[in-house]
Amino acid sequence: MNEEKFIKLKENFKLRNIEVQYFETLENVKSYILNIIPMECTIGIGHSATLQKVDITSSLLERGNIVYDKELAKNKEECKILKKKALTTDWYITGSNAISVDGRIVNVDHTGNRVAAIIFGPDKVIIVVGKNKIEDTVDEAIKRVKNIACPLNAKRAGFNPPCVTLNKCVDCVSKERVCNSLSIIEGQSDSDRIKLFIVNEECGF
Ligand code: SF4
């Protein structure tokens, strides 16, 4: 990632009270996360292809943390319970659909569990983002989320809104719509809550 761009991004997030840290690889991020989260803490996981790539859930479970990750659910009901439990854990770890150099974090959600957790859930939130998800402005970040992240995430989850076929958003009202909630984090009051970890790798979509 371009160093000048990263410095600008870090400064802009700092102005909005959000700490940004840079990592060369996803494995580096994983080691760092395992190091800073105490073993007695509970952890909620927001669905993220980035985190799944390094299987952070298994590593946390293996060493004894209690982890609420909807991917562990055996059925719909269990999935809902895990999503709710993840809202009140000590830590929440997730990815993001896009961030902008001007200092915003942009996400869409189907049911809203992930954006709810990020906005006002666990006391500590870690958001891991690959370099492919960085846009210059908040408008470009929203464009990315709707036209790139949504179709790919919808397809992965087995939904079929128009963007899956068209590869672009047509602002649908389909029952298969996956972007029911759009959240833009513009800043935070507690500088120690949300931390943004940027990885110099292409991660997720
Ligand atoms: S509004 Fe519809 S078409 Fe647009 S990104 Fe969301 S699901 Fe896709």
Automatic annotation (TrEMBL):
Q: Which residues form the LUD domain?
A: 8-199
A single Pfam family, by name?
LUD_dom
Q: Domain of life here?
A: Bacteria
Q: Which InterPro entries match?
A: LUD_dom
Q: Which PANTHER family match?
A: LUD DOMAIN-CONTAINING PROTEIN, LUD_DOM DOMAIN-CONTAINING PROTEIN
Q: Under which name does UniProt file this protein?
A: Lactate utilization protein
Give the organism, scientific name.
Clostridium mobile
